[in-house]
Amino acid sequence: MLAWGLYGVPVRAIRRFSVRPVLPEQLTGLGTLVNNLRWAWHPETQDVFEAVDPQLWRSTGGDPVKLLGEVPAARLDELANDHAFLSRLELAVADLNGYVTGNRWFQADAGSPVSSVAYFSPEFGITHVLPQYSGGLGILAGDHLKAASDLGVPLIGVGLLYRHGYFAQSLNREGWQQERYPLVDPDGLPINLLRDGEAPATVTLTLPGNRQLHAQIWVAQVGRVPLLMLDSDMEENEPAEREVTDRLYGGSTEHRLLQELLLGVGGVRAVRTFCRITGHEAPEVFHTNEGHAGFLGIERIRELAADQGLDFDTALEVARGGTVFTTHTPVPAGIDRFPVELIQQHFSPDAFGEGVPIDRILELGAEDFEGGDPGVFNMAIMGLRLAQRANGVSKLHGVVSRGMFSGLWPSFDATDVPITSITNGVHAPTWVAREIHGLTYATTDTAETDGIFAGLDKTTDAQIWETKRILRQRFIDDTRARVRQSWLNRGASEAELGWVDSILDPDVLTVGFARRVPSYKRLTLMLRDPARLKALLLHPQRPIQIVIAGKAHPADEGGKKLIQEMVRFADDPEVRHRIVFVPDYDIALAQPMYPGCDVWLNNPLRPYEACGTSGMKAALNGALNLSIRDGWWDEWYDDEFGWAIPSAEGIEDTDRRDDLEAHALYDLIEKQVAPRFYDGEVPGRWIEMLRHTIKELGPKVLATRMVRDYVEQLYVPSAHSSRSLNATYDGARDLAAWKKKVRAAWPQIRVDHVELQGLGDVPQLGTNVGIRAFAALGDLLPADIDVEVLHGRVDSNDEIKDPVRASLSLAETYDGNRHRYEGELKLDRTGPFGYTVRVVPKHAGLASPAELGLAAGPSDPEDPSTPDLPAGSEF
């Protein structure tokens, strides 16, 4: 805020900070509640804050720090003598203490050896009060922390504290996106500075040119989970280094590199500092949410080299064994890639220290595969090479990822690429409206998923319908206020905005569309035929209304043009009461939007949506999905959960594809969606779909299901690997030496001959056929390898679809280290059937037979030296 001096000249402060109130002793429990972000998803705690001053609670947007900073001292004194309020406060504090200290699912049922997991992400969406997120990646990370807290999983979150966060969006008169970066004052946030004694705890990175990058550590307590956020805005830094954590996803290429160095390298050092100061158990598993934090693996290798004297290969195995990498990117263009020269500068011995050879670091991120660029360092490639376990975020995204990264495993088909999938989920207590929760959920504890939706069976259709209308009206009221403010920002006067009071209708079918605005999400697909859309919006008996929100990246001119096109359509006086674009999409806008919508629209270009969780949040609030079968909707689609928009994949003409899919969308709305919504005063068939969605889809989309999957499928195996490799480091040394031996010997490995026994002239279903394979192992031993037979249905190109794998048994050994392996094939399906045999490395320390990227198959059937040794057989 500006003060005015002589002659109207503004007087600017040289520094700003927030002053927190001193609470009366009786109200210190309020400080306890504020400092744990559980209040962001716990309605009962929010009610306590609201009781402090209901009007102030609403005017501060539900921000308890602002609330306590602005509440009059007289009101605090009054509350300190209000026995009813003090009793309520005492119960809330006791409930929080029980939540953070009591046994949860992990302690009671997991039986896990995991002592602690460090979860790294460039952004975290916990609450709108802590604006450290831009979109789906951050919201997913926030939900991951919350669900881990609910389940009792011992997690430490690691991120950066951006002093300007992501941008606030507005529109100018022409409908063009404008960006503004409000200053984020840490003293005004529900976070605390980590202190080492009396001084702030810090980490330091050495940069090229003998520069130093210092960062202090802020801690946000997310239920049971501490979130560490590194902040470079310190006086000890030079101006350039001070700005490293200025904005999320902003700045030059080198600026982004410095952010990712601070997140990965500085993040590991911050975790070590936090554990030393607080006594928190050191993590056995490191989970990097996308490639932005991938440098954490290099820092762990440096630690092991410096502290334990390990060579690079041994340290690499130790670090890999306890690392999980999650990719969220469905296209190569979405991956961070840096010039090799920049990496060389920042990881030179002068900057990063001795013990980690720069050439080995460069190998980790090298695109040394067909079609790769030798001049760049690829963060996702590094993430995959530094993690023994990796996953995509839906089943379809797992397929896409295995294809996209198959160049790292050239000896294997895409189906064998060692990238699994765990489908994302959403944190129900954060996103489900209270009214929906009251109707449908039998318990408030979503850590216990059994029976939490049972309350829906006791609710009548009329109750559900009326509840949805109330939520629609609330969302409309919120939208009208936002649209009015948006038009004022665009230069309109109050006198010309009377029409805003009548936009949208609580009795009209309401469609929601809100997400980031890259081109593949196709914000404007609905505008392909404007006349057809207008007809749907203005239908005399079955109208629809659409509320749209979304931000384009500041550097994405194409995305901004899409927003402008949508805004200009929505500005048309003929339809502006039925379709609106609401600026500045964030958590505060999303929370009333999901329950206020009847249908959630999603129309990306398949298969470019990695997961897309907004439709999950809408479904938990009783909205039906209308979506292209992409991301999570592809695997869980059911015609009782909503409608699938047909995808015209395979059509290379993008305009024609958009036209086909848009008209399919119009047809679905006109002929199926709207008629079902307007079928009677209380549309029973619609309510039946709503019930089915919440009861059957609801348990699948929960973030607690997602985190359980991570624990059981990735964290526990990673902890086992980490523990075995860290015990004396002998296991890691042996594994590194074994890999070196296998790589050197592999060119000698071959399958000399394969034959079947008992096939017969006419192969019949159910027949057991003997198979024998002769393999030459060169300098390896039989214990070093596994001989597998792969069999199943084949296509017209003789490719085996969904192959069944089985290991053959060693039957006999011959001179020259040649061996015969035997087994059986069961002809368990009719039609074209094929098989092949391959040799793969085998070691107890491998997470997958494909880990080394090595496989040897039968000799080429056209090789004149082995004319009778076919690669397989089809019959």
Quick structural summary:
The protein is an alpha/beta fold and 875 residues long. Helix content is 38%, strand content 18%.
What does this protein look like?
The protein is 38% helix and 18% strand. Helix 24 (614-620) links the parallel strand 22 (599-602) and strand 23. Helix 2 (43-52) packs antiparallel against helix 6 and helix 20 (461-489) runs antiparallel to helix 23. It contains 29 helices and 32 strands. The protein has 875 residues and is an alpha/beta fold. It has four domains: 25-101, no CATH class; 109-421, Rossmann fold; 459-578 and 587-700, Glycogen Phosphorylase B (Rossmann fold, 3-Layer(aba) Sandwich), CATH 3.40.50; 747-874, Coagulation Factor XIII, Chain A, domain 1 (Distorted Sandwich). Strands 3, 4, 7, 10, 11, 12, 13, 14, 17 and 18 form a ten-stranded mixed beta sheet that branches. A six-stranded parallel beta sheet has the order 21-20-19-22-23-24, with helices on both faces. The radius of gyration is 30 Å and the shape is globular. The longest helix has 29 residues, at 461-489. Mean pLDDT is 92; it is low at 860-875. Belongs to the glycogen phosphorylase family. Residues 850-875 are annotated as: Disordered. The modification N6-(pyridoxal phosphate)lysine is found at residue 617.
